[in-house]
Design a protein that fits this description.
single chain, mainly alpha, 0% strand, 10 helices
Length: 244
């Protein structure tokens, strides 16, 4: 019972982080592996929580008047082919290889995001070339999301906010819809290959969904400032986890 409560709590934190910034799966995925699940099962179990989390987040954004289905669906559709390919790779990769890749991604994510960058305003419409690059990027993000998921929110924020110049609140709105879209075919691959531990999945999904709803309300009411604060906290947590 205490174990399931811990999984639920981790899901709440992850759901909040995933909507506000990203990196929640860098908490839940290693936790599921630590609890003894094979890496493919841990990966598939985490996808159930991600799917439910983003259904809740999209609905919460919609209720608060933030919805742009046409644009979000177009972005999300570009991720689907990559997500299916990435999921098939994930269910066939070896345990040792997956663990090494996950550790490497955590290190690269933290190092890359902690490097000081010059601040610049992201206003106005993006050039046509940026839109082309963005759609190519969505395919690559779909593959990454289908393969490992952890940290995909940071990549989407980079494309949506920095490249397409969308404000952070609407970036989060599009982000949860895009992840919801590519999570469907990716999860189907994991379910079809028997790589989901359903008890952990249901408990984790409940936690993720609750954290996601809270995050959408904070995001909409607080604007960009709380998003930047949570992003900083997420980075600090990942850095601390790597050190430990």
């Amino acid at each position: 019972m205490l174990l399931l409560i811990a999984v639920f709590g981790a899901g709440m934190v992850a759901g909040f982080l995933n909507v506000m910034a990203g990196g929640g799966s860098l908490i839940t995925l290693p936790l599921l592996i630590f609890l003894g699940l094979p890496v493919a099962v841990a990966n598939g179990t985490n996808r159930v929580a991600i799917l439910v989390q983003n259904i809740a987040a999209v609905d919460s954004f919609r209720r608060q008047g933030y919805v742009d289905l046409q644009t979000g669906l177009a972005y999300g559709a570009a991720t689907i082919p990559g997500a299916i390919a990435g999921a098939f790779v994930a269910v066939n990769v070896g345990e040792t290889t997956f663990r090494a890749i996950l550790a490497g991604i955590m290190a690269i994510t933290v190092i890359g995001l902690l490097i000081p960058k010059k601040r610049r305003e992201v206003t106005g419409d993006p050039p046509a070339s940026a839109r082309i690059i963005a759609f190519l990027g969505f395919f690559g993000i779909g593959f990454y999301g289908g393969f490992i998921q952890a940290g995909v929110g940071f990549l989407l924020m980079l494309v949506l906010h920095q490249l397409l110049r969308i404000d952070l609140v609407r970036t989060n709105m599009h982000k949860v819809l895009i992840v919801l879209i590519f999570s469907l075919p990716a999860l189907a691959v994991f379910v079809g290959t028997g790589n989901v531990a359903w008890v952990f999945a249901v408990v984790l999904a409940a936690g993720n969904a609750l954290g996601a709803v809270v995050a959408t309300k904070v995001s909409v009411k607080g604007g960009e400032r709380p998003i930047k604060i949570v992003l900083g906290i997420a980075l600090a947590m990942m850095a601390t986890r790597l050190v430990l």
